[in-house]
Automatic annotation (TrEMBL):
Taxonomic source organism: Candidatus Chloroploca mongolica
Name listed for the protein in its UniProt record: S9 family peptidase
Membrane-traversing stretches: none
Signal peptide from the UniProt entry: none
Domain Peptidase S9 prolyl oligopeptidase catalytic, chain residue ranges per copy: 419-624
Pfam families assigned to the protein according to its UniProt record, in alphabetical order: PD40, Peptidase_S9
Length: 630
């Protein structure tokens, strides 16, 4: 039997299969504990599905036809809520909120078609809905009636951004998180508690007080206990996101979590959830992240030791945790490096799979498992997630595989031990893959995340370069065939790394990456309009720094072949960012390919786009890495 060279292995994952998977986005219980509703997306369209746990029947689609479920405030998220046997959701094309009964019948819009809506929260009495609304760059917390008879009213305004609205069980209070420019929510954000008055047809805010947060603190996901005595939230003011309890009657705050790791995540989207209250208000279930691996912990509110839920399936990443309001069941999206995302219901003794994102026809031993690794970059310790080609033993003599250095976006984000189709696409073809959690990544404490302040284009690039050296020094990969790939902020790091270390990388793959920091500062969307103030520095005072760190102004240093991909409708990193760097490569005759995907934004949603993307990078790497290195 002939053994194919690394990079040419017969992978079970074809480009068409890569495009065929569902994307599971969110899941919630109805307040009755009877229904579970989730959001999934296929070929760019989001739809809601429901299962009746009492009847144990087959799942039903709630939103067939032309409706597309998706929150469109900022990066999206927070697309729906469930309660009183109704689901309220944001419709993508119109920006309206719709209401749909879980037992059937047609849905109906309950807000007018202007702006964008996200993060709906249904009042305990089921009569009103609060939600985040954005219109002409103005964000607010709004309120409307569930039956759609009342024109929506502004409930909270005056903040640049609002997130995570939630109701007190008595219906007379709400909590929410807000922050202002130039901060990002993981830099400084504040938790507010508002008392409501009921003089008119819709409630209005009477008084507001600060519960936690402020300058230099990040607050995530407030939620009230079912009995109304407590408000829980995450805060990083002690060095990492931990779980805190606020006693509503006394105003006393106390920390509940005690272990290492982090219990939160950067608020890139609406509706992110890491905590869930037990039905009896006696404990909080929390997702604990340590080195990119998540487990579910039960934190008793009386201060008793925390316990970790059993995990017989071997999942290494959980998200969008929700607890049954009637028993000890939990529902979440669960995955591992070799397990595509699943929708699972679990408790201390059983686990049930409700939905799979893929057919899972590929055996787990045919996929690459994850290893958490660290290495030194000067005096700093850098973290990453390492994947070896299935069956490859690094200690063997003979040829070494090519390697892919993957750079996550954000840059305030983290590569974690979830299933990555892109990782497996490379690894099953015979590539070593290293996800670099460079300085500035979350998951390792606030100090590590904040270390990129004013150093974007410096530390992230240095850590990507040191990751390539780490693979070579550990004899894991062929040092002459290392590829670097990334999207968005990761695409920026790809371009800068190719400029700063032109002889290190054999090729680069850039998706909607930043080439001109000046243009990004003026052209990007509201959410990141001042992001560069902390990543690079304020303008015009640091203009020299912007020029020195913009790949466009030293693109003549790029010698490696490049594959560049861009969405035509990208509002975050507009197409000009890609096209100017493509023009620079063309002028110098540097081998490259460029794909502009019509109708796509900041990432790929359509199946045909995804399949085309993977076909293109496979052909590109065969030409410029695999056969070129033979």
């Amino acid at each position: 039997m002939q053994t194919l060279p690394f990079g040419l292995w017969a992978s079970p994952l074809t480009p068409r299969q890569m495009a065929a998977s569902l994307r599971l986005d969110d899941v919630l219980w109805d307040a009755s504990g009877r229904y579970i509703v989730w959001l999934e997306a296929l070929d760019g369209r989001g739809s809601l599905w429901c299962v009746d746990t009492q009847r144990n029947d087959a799942p039903r689609e709630l939103t067939p036809g032309d409706l597309a479920v998706r929150g469109r405030v900022g990066y999206g998220g927070g697309a729906f809520t469930v309660g009183h046997e109704y689901v309220v959701f944001a419709e993508a094309s119109s920006g309206r909120l719709w209401c749909q009964h879980l037992k059937g019948g047609e849905g109906k819009p309950i807000t007018p078609a202007f702006g964008a809506a996200a993060a709906p929260a249904l009042a305990p009495d089921g009569n009103t809905v609060i939600f985040v609304h954005s219109y002409e760059e103005q964000d607010c917390l709004a309120i409307t009636s569930l039956d759609g008879t009342q024109w929506p009213q502004q409930l909270v305004r005056g903040h640049d951004f609002v997130m995570w609205p939630c109701w007190h069980p008595a219906g007379n209070r709400i909590a929410y998180v807000a922050w202002e420019h130039p901060h990002m929510p993981w830099d400084s954000s504040t938790l507010y508690l508002a008392e409501l008055g009921f003089e008119g047809k819709l409630p209005q805010v009477r008084t507001t007080r600060i519960v936690a947060g402020g300058e230099g603190q990040s607050i995530v996901q407030p939620c009230f206990s079912p009995d109304g005595q407590y408000l829980t939230y995450g805060s990083d003011h002690e060095g990492a996101w931990q779980v805190y309890l606020y006693e509503v009657a006394t105003g006393i705050n106390r920390r509940l979590s005690t272990g290492e790791g982090e219990y939160g995540q950067p608020a890139w989207a609406q509706g992110l959830r890491s905590f869930a209250w037990s039905h009896d208000s006696q404990r909080i279930y929390a997702l604990r992240n340590e080195r990119g691996i998540r487990s579910i912990e039960a934190l008793p509110i009386d201060g008793s030791p925390a316990s970790t839920l059993p995990n017989a399936e071997g999942y290494t990443w959980f998200s969008q945790l929700a607890a049954s309001p009637r028993n000890d069941d939990l529902v979440s999206l669960a995955s591992a490096s070799t397990i595509p995302p699943r929708l699972v219901v679990q408790n201390a003794t059983t686990t049930q799979i409700l939905r799979r994102s893929s057919s899972e026809l590929v055996a787990r031993n045919q996929l690459a498992d994850v290893q958490c690794v660290s290495w030194a970059a000067g005096t700093a310790t850098i973290h990453g997630m390492l994947y070896l080609p299935p069956g490859y033993a690094p200690g063997d003599d003979g040829p070494k595989p090519p390697a892919v250095i993957r750079i996550h976006g954000g840059p305030t984000d983290q590569a974690v031990a979830t299933y990555s189709g892109e990782v497996q696409f490379f690894a099953t073809r015979g590539y070593v893959v290293l996800d670099v959690n460079y300085r500035g990544s979350t998951g390792y404490g606030r100090a590590y995340a904040q270390s990129l302040r004013y150093e974007w284009g410096v530390f992230d690039v240095a850590d990507a370069i040191s990751g390539a050296h780490y693979l070579a020094q550990e004899n894991l990969a062929d040092a002459s065939r290392i590829i670097i790939i990334g999207g968005s902020a990761g695409g920026y790091t790809v371009l800068e790394a190719l400029c700063q270390a032109p002889e290190l990388f054999r090729a680069g793959i850039c998706r909607y990456g930043v080439s001109n920091l000046f243009a990004l500062a003026t052209d990007t969307h509201k959410f990141e309009a001042h992001y560069l103030d902390s990543l690079v520095g304020p303008l015009p005072e640091t203009a020299t720094r912007y020029r020195e760190r913009s790949p466009l102004f030293h693109a003549e240093r790029i010698n490696a072949p490049m594959a560049i991909f861009q969405g035509s409708e990208d509002r975050v990193v507009p197409p000009d960012q890609a096209e100017t760097i493509v023009a620079a490569l063309r002028r110098r005759g540097i081998p490259h390919i460029y794909h502009l995907f019509d109708g796509e934004g900041h990432g790929w949603r359509r199946a045909e786009t995804i399949a085309t993307y993977y076909r293109a990078i496979d052909a590109f790497l065969r030409q410029h890495v695999v056969f070129a290195g033979a």
